[in-house]
Design a protein that fits this description.
Low-confidence stretches of chain A: none
Number of strands of chain B: 3
Largest interface: A-B, 27 and 22 residues
Number of helices of chain B: 2
CATH topology of chain B: Ubiquitin-like (UB roll)
Distance between the termini of chain B: 67 Å
Largest sheet of chain A: 2 strands, antiparallel
Order of helices and strands of chain B: EEHEH
Radius of gyration of chain A: 22 Å
Structural class of chain B: alpha+beta
Structural class of chain A: mainly alpha
Distance between the termini of chain A: 53 Å
Strand content of chain B: 15-25%
Largest sheet of chain B: 3 strands, antiparallel
Order of helices and strands of chain A: HHHHHHHHHHEEHHH
Strand order of the largest sheet of chain B: 2-1-3
Strand content of chain A: under 5%
Oligomer: heterodimer
Helix content of chain A: 55-70%
CATH class of chain B: Alpha Beta
Mean pLDDT of chain A: 94
Number of strands of chain A: 2
CATH superfamily of chain B: Phenylacetic acid degradation B
């Protein structure tokens, strides 16, 4: 979901009958719940799928700093500013854990960043939307990090050891993100009518993009079926999206806000909320690069990377100079 | 294009006297930057009182595949554990 629509490279699900001896042994380990580690044999498709998914997840964390970075200089008070900075720092850390996990699969950081900066690699659609008022900081923490938690908890149990362990650390830190977002919404909804209206406007703009984070329905998706067989993906997109709606609607009601979905209703029989149709054309358009902020996000990342080159080069030159001096002295 | 920074593994000690625990890795150009970055990334929540960083290339590890052969000798030596020896109840301090 931070990794949406990941290609597995398979046209049809791998059947046991078609597997080589090693692949069969590998699949048995997966089925037995044994973690796959970097030095273990793995099918090339498994390796490639994980590189795509984990790096996409990592890119999402780093690009995800930008919508919130937009409001650091305009937080309503010093405490809110410090808290927002702490959250943004966490996202950098999450990016690091995920890049580290991806690199165990035999890909370099430089290559991963080159793929992001060229537009070849994707990041979550949600970060292509603008943050136009302070309430958006609340909505993002509450809805976006909230959705991320729902996606990331099952990933703690995925088959690839380094990814699962990275997710454990991420999940520990993510709860603060969701709570700080909801705390912002609480303050606004308990404030002046204008503040509450700002919160409602923010919910109106972020609700549907948050639901889209989980990706389109994947019951017929070969990629999802293969990922499920490899125990990378443990729940369907629809399942996770339903979980998010069921959890979040009561939270919105507590705030006294209206979810912008006239079709939303509680179904007593199923024990779940029914909700309206999602506009998947918008989702695909955003993924294609035509969301409100795609070009700006990429430009910002590329500029930061290029503007920082002198510093990275200087660090390396300094390290080399020190190493040479030590070598001389020895 | 500049050359890539080497990979360091990071170990944090949570309290004085306890063992350092592996918490993750990072790239850095030298040891000083590795320690500072490890502090920034792996100790935001008071995780520890001490940091070790080790070049990943310097770490030698046993192979998971060798687990059975490597640790087989200790599997049959259960008498290394005190619980192997039941002591009479009346006897103290043993």
């Amino acid at each position: 979901m931070y990794a949406q629509m990941v290609e597995t490279g398979t046209q049809k699900l791998r059947l046991v009958a078609d597997m080589s001896v090693e692949e069969r042994a590998f699949q048995e380990r997966i089925d037995a719940g044994i973690k796959i580690e970097p030095k273990d044999w793995m099918p090339e498709g498994y390796r490639k799928t994980l590189i795509r998914q984990i790096s996409q997840h990592a890119h999402s964390e780093i690009v995800g700093q930008l919508p919130e970075g937009n409001w650091v200089t305009r937080a309503p008070n010093l405490e809110r500013k410090a808290i927002l900075l702490a959250k943004i720092q966490d996202e950098a850390g999450h990016g690091l854990y995920l890049y580290s996990a991806a690199e165990t699969l035999g890909v370099s950081r430089d290559d991963l960043l080159a793929a992001l900066h060229s537009g070849k690699a994707k990041y979550s659609s949600i970060f292509n939307y603008p943050t136009i008022n302070w309430a958006d900081m609340g909505a993002i923490g509450w809805l976006v990090d909230g959705s991320a938690i729902i996606n990331q908890i099952p990933l703690c149990r995925c088959s690839y050891g380094p990814y699962a362990r990275a997710m454990v650390r991420v999940c520990k830190e993510e709860s603060f993100h969701a709570r700080q977002g909801y705390d912002i919404m609480l303050a606004l909804c308990r404030g002046t009518p204008e503040q509450k209206q700002m919160a409602q406007d923010s919910l109106n703009r972020w609700w549907w993009p948050a639901l889209m984070m989980f990706g389109p329905s994947d019951t017929d998706s070969v990629n999802s079926a293969q990922s499920a067989q490899w125990r990378i993906k443990l729940h369907s997109n629809d399942e996770l999206r339903q979980r998010m709606v069921d959890q979040t609607v009561p939270q919105a009601e507590h705030l006294g806000l209206t979810v912008p979905d006239p079709a939303l209703r509680w179904n007593e029989e199923t024990g779940h909320y029914e909700f309206g149709e999602i506009d998947w054309a918008e989702f695909h358009n955003v993924l294609k690069g035509n969301g409100p902020c795609n070009r700006e996000r990429l430009r910002t990342r590329v500029k930061a990377y290029e503007d920082g080159a002198w510093f990275r080069d200087a660090l390396l030159a300094h390290a080399d100079k020190r190493a040479a001096a030590r070598h001389q002295a020895a | 294009m500049s050359k890539e920074w080497p990979l360091w593994e990071v170990f944090i000690r949570s309290q004085h006297g306890l063992a350092h625990k592996h918490v993750g890795s990072l790239h850095a150009p030298d040891a000083e930057m590795a320690i500072n970055n490890a502090r920034d990334v792996y100790t935001r929540r008071n995780e520890g009182v001490g940091i070790w960083v080790v070049l990943a290339s310097e770490i030698v590890s046993s192979s998971p595949g060798d687990k059975a052969a490597l640790f087989d000798p200790s599997n049959t030596k259960v008498y290394r554990h005190p619980t192997f020896f039941p002591m009479p109840e009346e006897v103290k301090n043993l």
